[in-house]
Design a protein that fits this description.
alpha/beta, Alpha/beta knot, Trp Operon Repressor, Chain A, 2 domains, two-stranded antiparallel sheet, 9 helices, 9 strands, about 35% helix, about 15% strand
Amino acid sequence: MSESGIAAQKPLLRFNLFTLFPGIFAGPLDESILRRARDRGIVEIAIHDIRDWAVDRHRTVDDTTYGGGAGMVMMAPPIVSAVEETLASDLARTRILVMSAGGRLFNQPLAEELMASARIAIVCGRYEGIDYRAIEILEAEEISIGDYVLTGGELAASVVVDAVTRLVPGVIDAASVEEESHRERLLEYPQFTRPPVFRERKVPPVLLSGHHAEIGRWRREQSLRRTARLRPDLLDLESLSPLEREIVEQELANDRVRG
């Protein structure tokens, strides 16, 4: 399909982002691949300021926490109103996420699962979090991008948007997606480009050989070694051949010696 045909079609995926600080999204969502996907009409991203649904003249969206404790909590009414009124008839067909340090860990399988959705809404928490009643009423899923705490959910939401968008057909080359890290629960092999020698470090000769079978074997071995060294938790030894298990066990032993 031509670019003009893609631009004219209905977006394959829509994001609605709800936040107290819309400006945070200006950089990550307006550059590079995400910008091109939006310009071509493949993906649609709308950003909504939750303060627009506050009911008082001060646009209040947070209050002290019941039960005592430090910090403020985002109030349920503005959040629920913002999501319900924006999504309207699409509410029941939308995956609603709340970015939360205590949520389900975001990973590649979840990104692929979310990519199958027609619309995704993401609520970005701030301060000490949001009133849990908003999560219950909206039947939202709490999602975390890692075991650490950010000042707000906007950067985490940008990570989710980026990871999911790049999987949408037509956004990037399909072959690139197939070969990258975590696709097969293995880290990607090292990549090299010109010049062939840089500061006395040479590109591995096999990559210059033109022998595709040998290159494939080298890349597979390097993926196994990198995963064993950096992310052994991703390895499933039962799914490996005897030779691949030997490579992994050798790398794990080397890592113990280095450590």
